[in-house]
Design a protein that fits this description.
single chain
């Protein structure tokens, strides 16, 4: 039986402060935080620029989340580098590649075709970076603190989105989108420095050389496992469809898009804080279905074009539903052998990000033919349907480890 990481059924005794006293975790966390802030600023600036130039809901939605399309390329080709024997060096190189991509967006007069090309390159490197970072996370913190660490990162992601969208909206009152890209570049540079100075090199035991063959072997085992397939479906599709709703905010209400995006991120922050810090693993698992419904149902209000305050409240409440991701991630970790946990977590993250891009494309494409409010309602209804129909398969998922060639 291959070894695998199990998640404690009780809340770890250490808290967030205890985690941050760990120098390596603090470095990973700082790098993640700065990267998330840079990504938020860059995406908001690009979405605004594309909206001004094209007035196309489809292109605006894709520009904000288009990098997620390329994450699947990383998952299918080179994600096994996340479990290589030089993870720190790999992460630093990937952070620097992302830095170069963000900096390139700041070039004035860059054609839209080139900007979308950069999005694909960034998505590829970001997917590999996420897998490597999460593989390191499982090495840096004890198994009992893993859920708490992921909770803190999820909370931070929401917090950075709140600040990023709010600050981005303010900066765009005084700066051009290129100026905001420069600010994002500075944040991405600081993220690279943080990782380089704090994280030490570790050996994640892998018996084969990372590459295309190793990536495909592990992915085949992952998708052949019925439990992991059900979990990945619920981690990817409902989330991605709701991100598609968010991608229409600029088209739905240009003057209030920043407030909507910030409200959704604030709801995400509150949900992750509550679910990750106050509930046990068992309680999180029992609440996962209800949280997934909460993620989509409030968006059905957009069918009646509610007042701005009501719509903002609905987006905030729905944002809390993203906390369903944490118990599903815990279940997936319980299925994963130690030698490939970086790749499996990288595939999970890449698929989730890719579905964000797919959701944005679906919602944006639909909004070409119906009103943005009607498109938001339809996509939210689809998210509810997927959650309900897939529930029996998630319930039957059991913590039987994946069998891989290297386990």
């Amino acid at each position: 039986m291959p070894s695998h990481t199990s998640v404690s059924s009780t809340l770890p005794t250490t808290g967030y402060r205890g985690l941050l006293r760990n120098r390596e975790f603090a470095g990973l966390y700082a790098g993640f935080t700065l990267t998330a802030a840079a990504s938020t600023l860059s995406g908001f600036a690009l979405g605004t620029l594309v909206d001004h130039q094209t007035r196309s809901p489809f292109l605006t939605a894709v520009s904000m989340y288009g990098a997620t399309f390329a994450t699947v390329l990383g998952a299918l080709t080179l994600m096994s580098v996340a479990d290589g024997n030089r993870p720190r060096r790999t992460l630093v190189v990937l952070q620097c590649a992302s830095l170069a991509g963000v900096a390139a967006q700041a070039v004035p007069g860059l054609p839209l075709v080139a900007r979308f090309g950069l999005l694909l390159v960034l998505g590829f490197f970001q997917s590999l970076g996420t897998g490597t970072r999460m593989g390191l996370l499982a090495e840096v913190v004890p198994a009992s603190a893993y859920a708490l660490a992921r909770s803190l990162m999820n909370i931070t992601s929401g917090g950075m989105a709140v600040l990023g969208y709010a600050v981005g909206a303010v900066l765009l009152r005084y700066l051009t989108p290129q100026g905001v890209f420069v600010a994002a570049t500075a944040l991405a540079g600081a993220a690279s420095i943080s990782v380089a100075l704090t994280v030490r090199e570790r050996t994640i035991r892998l018996t084969r050389r990372p590459g295309l063959r190793q990536t495909w072997a592990t992915n085949t085992a992952l998708f052949s496992h019925s439990g992991s397939r059900a979990l990945l479906l619920n981690l990817w599709v409902p989330n991605g469809l709701i991100v598609g709703c968010e991608a229409l905010f600029i088209s739905y209400a240009p003057r209030h898009a920043g407030a909507f995006l910030a409200a959704g991120s604030a709801g995400m922050l509150l949900g992750d804080l509550t679910v990750g810090r106050l509930l046990t693993a068992g309680q999180r698992r029992r609440w996962a279905f209800a949280l997934r419904l909460l993620l989509a149902v409030p968006y059905l209000l957009f069918a009646v074009n509610p007042p701005v305050l009501v719509a903002t409240a609905a987006v905030f409440i729905a944002g809390a539903g993203f906390a369903a991701t944490l118990p599903l991630q815990e279940q997936l970790l319980a299925l994963t052998p130690d030698p490939v946990r970086g790749q499996v977590q990288g595939v999970e993250s890449a698929g989730r990000m890719t579905w964000q891009g797919i959701g944005a494309a679906i919602a944006g494409g639909l909004a070409q033919y119906v009103t943005p409010g009607a498109a938001i309602t339809a996509v939210a209804a689809a998210s509810v349907a997927v959650t309900v129909l897939s529930r029996p398969f998630v319930t039957r998922a059991r913590a039987v480890p994946l069998e891989t060639a290297d386990a």
